[in-house]
Design brief:
Blueprint (H helix, E strand, L loop, with lengths): L3 E4 L5 H9 L8 E3 L1 H17 L4 E7 L3 H11 L6 E5 L4 H13 L5 E5 L7 H6 L7 H15 L3 E3 L5 H7 L5 E4 L18 H6 L4 E4 L1 H4 L4 H13 L1
Parallel strand pairs: 1-2, 1-8, 2-3, 3-4, 4-5, 5-6, 6-7, 7-8
Helix pairs in contact: 3-4, 4-6
The structure holds cytidine-5'-monophosphate (C5P).
Length: 230
């Protein structure tokens, strides 16, 4: 499985397939987010899996434990490899997500989102995390997720090493906010290049707009992949 997931954040399902068709039979690993899932649902997931894509379903489930357990069970009946829930839902919710996953057919790995990579220190203050830094709150959430028994977390590249130290090396850390062109942040605040992600021990990376909006998306995908692998 390729460990670089391309976020298919398009305005329509048609655009999504136009993009994938440019890879001429190469089944890249893909991330499906809320927009595409709400538009085309389980059919899209089945279709992508049949085309050989490994799928990361990024729905960031966050609700009371019982509701999350029921939802994750349903989603675990889809042919997906990874599924996200929000660490902020708490320990009991994370354990409920694992129970739901264990009842489904496909047993995706559960990743808990710590702080979004679009969150800045200022936003953290607005959200009421007044006494705690971004790094400390991310590590705290990651430790809780580890203790709950999930497979890994989503965090920024800048926190990966501290998370590995606080948990263990086999605890998966997936990092979005990846940019080779440092001047183009979009709405991401805490960014890094694929190479920096590798150096900081990220296990998986997600790249969206820099690839899907590129003039030559296939070429750009290869460029990101090379930087990540080398
Ligand atoms: O276009 P870009 O590379 O910024 O896309 C990053 C993708 O990763 C988006 O689909 C976004 O929803 C997702 N993501 C993120 N930060 C997280 C978790 C997921 O940016 N903490």
């Amino acid at each position: 499985m390729e460990t670089l997931f391309v976020a298919l954040d398009f305005d329509s399902t048609e655009e999504c397939f136009d993009f994938l068709n440019q890879f001429k039979g190469q089944s890249i690993s893909v991330k499906i987010g809320m927009a595409e899932y709400f538009r085309s649902g389980a059919d899209m997931i089945e279709n992508l899996a049949q085309r050989g894509h490994h799928i990361f379903l990024d729905l960031k489930c966050h609700d009371i434990p019982n509701t999350v357990e029921l939802a994750v069970e349903q989603l675990s009946n889809l042919p997906i490899k990874y599924l996200t829930v929000h660490a902020l839902g708490g320990m009991t919710m994370l354990k409920a997500a694992i129970n739901g996953r264990n009842k489904g057919r496909f047993h995706p790995k559960i990743l808990a989102v710590t702080q979004l990579t679009s969150t800045s220190e200022d936003m953290l203050q607005q959200l009421g995390f007044k006494e705690v830094s971004m790094t400390d709150s991310t590590i705290q959430l990651a430790k809780m997720a580890y203790d709950a028994g999930v497979d890994g977390v989503v965090a920024s590249v800048h926190e990966v090493e501290a998370i590995k130290q606080a948990t263990d090396d086999s605890f998966i850390v997936l990092t979005p906010g990846i940019r080779m062109e440092q001047s183009i942040h979009d709405d991401q605040h805490r960014i890094a290049t694929p190479k920096q992600a590798k150096v900081h021990q990220s296990d998986l990376i997600v790249v969206g707009r820099p690839i899907i909006k590129a003039k030559e998306p296939v070429e750009m995908y290869r460029k990101y992949l090379k930087d990540w692998r080398d």
